[in-house]
Amino acid sequence: MVTRIHPEPAQPALPADLAALSAITSDAYRQVKDRLREVITRLGEEGRLRLPSEAELSTALGVSRATLRSALQSLQKEGRIRRLHGHGTFINRHALGLGANLAEAGAFMDLLTEAGHQATVSTADQRVVPLDADMAASLEIPAGEQALRIERVFAASGAPAVHSVDHFPVRLLGDDPRALEATQSTFEFVERHIGPPVCYSVAEVRPVLPPAEVATALKIPATQPLLRLRHTHIQADEQPVAVTVVHVNDEYLRFSVIRTYLDE
Amino acid sequence: MVTRIHPEPAQPALPADLAALSAITSDAYRQVKDRLREVITRLGEEGRLRLPSEAELSTALGVSRATLRSALQSLQKEGRIRRLHGHGTFINRHALGLGANLAEAGAFMDLLTEAGHQATVSTADQRVVPLDADMAASLEIPAGEQALRIERVFAASGAPAVHSVDHFPVRLLGDDPRALEATQSTFEFVERHIGPPVCYSVAEVRPVLPPAEVATALKIPATQPLLRLRHTHIQADEQPVAVTVVHVNDEYLRFSVIRTYLDE
């Protein structure tokens, strides 16, 4: 339903069915992951650090072993659990109750809600602009090409907390490039309007003083440092589909990351 | 050789042999991971995104399949590669050439070297201090207990770039609590003087203006935002062993993180 104009592939192709496969599995998979997170939180609160067996979990959650295993792998990647061959799967106790995990997928509406706020979002601006050289390089298209630019502000119980600007190349978009609903995450937008979902994002993490328009939007002084995350979102076929630059006021949303060293 | 006084275990025990197992495998494992990183970089530069099979890799690197598989899992966790069942292992092309990865283990000497600097380090201060409430809570011991505090400055080609303060509880240390060599990483110190290596660290990531002593040590104005990482280091038996607070001048060392969404 969306006409997609592919740029010439710069790389040897990955298996062609991958993107389709991802699209089919992503929803069920995310639901299972959310439910596993709840299980982990509950067990952790009870001081029980060992997860039930895969057989028990797949029965309890009503999902296949394959889906369950994918979700467990992903939680292990994020540092929430560790799997010890011959011993079972254990909760990383000190990762319990952590705030937003930098290595996790996260829509800001969800992250703010999980941080205990009432999350709202408004679209500040939505238009088509030419890409600057830096952004175009990340998207692997010529500078000056058009992109849909979406500027949003996410609020925590009414206070502006996160300023976000997405750029989607117009060449990847179809008929109506202005169809984003404010509450839709960047990932949902990609799945709905571009096609195969985001597979991974590379995010540069920097401490910055706010640019003037961000200070205004977040109602903070120009001297307050913010966390700036500049994401390049990549599909399974290594196609970059969007750049998202986010400024976070960490009074409302604090990130952590779990660094793991040993894998048994 | 080091007398270790365990605090009372707060949690149900993990398998008792785990820590020993980690200590034995960690060195070989880290070497394999470093060599795999080189392989990935070289293949990536040649535009080849598919890794050789496990059999070929384990022969080429001269390591067991089990060790190889652990190292591959860890690189997948960090977002460097992805393993697709039935298709093989692929390099995440857009993660190539990334700077320091926030989700990876990293000694600052290595991180600065990899960023192209000549890395040096000096110990600014080393002494025993009482723990404040916040730090004691992270280490799960009473406030006021003594800790070895080590303050260091890592320089990039002569310019101070990273300010680091470790706190190790004295109750976990043995005979000579002042034995840290400046070039020794926090992780090496734990392995040598406390015992089982660090299994994972929980790091809070914040943008901050520098405290006065950090601004002085890094020779920067009080208005320059820094990345502040506050780590709690955890052993395999869930014992917290150290807190490390680091301030990074990101002119010299820039962090990224790879956020992964789908696991096939």
UniProtKB/TrEMBL annotation, chains A, B:
<dbReference type="Pfam" id="PF00392">
    <property type="entry name" value="GntR"/>
</dbReference>
<protein>
    <submittedName>
        <fullName>GntR family transcriptional regulator</fullName>
    </submittedName>
</protein>
<dbReference type="Pfam" id="PF07702">
    <property type="entry name" value="UTRA"/>
</dbReference>
<dbReference type="InterPro" id="IPR036388">
    <property type="entry name" value="WH-like_DNA-bd_sf"/>
</dbReference>
<dbReference type="InterPro" id="IPR011663">
    <property type="entry name" value="UTRA"/>
</dbReference>
<dbReference type="InterPro" id="IPR000524">
    <property type="entry name" value="Tscrpt_reg_HTH_GntR"/>
</dbReference>
<feature type="domain" description="HTH gntR-type">
    <location>
        <begin position="26"/>
        <end position="94"/>
    </location>
</feature>
<dbReference type="InterPro" id="IPR028978">
    <property type="entry name" value="Chorismate_lyase_/UTRA_dom_sf"/>
</dbReference>
<dbReference type="InterPro" id="IPR036390">
    <property type="entry name" value="WH_DNA-bd_sf"/>
</dbReference>
<keyword id="KW-0804">Transcription</keyword>
<keyword id="KW-0238">DNA-binding</keyword>
<dbReference type="InterPro" id="IPR050679">
    <property type="entry name" value="Bact_HTH_transcr_reg"/>
</dbReference>
<keyword id="KW-0805">Transcription regulation</keyword>
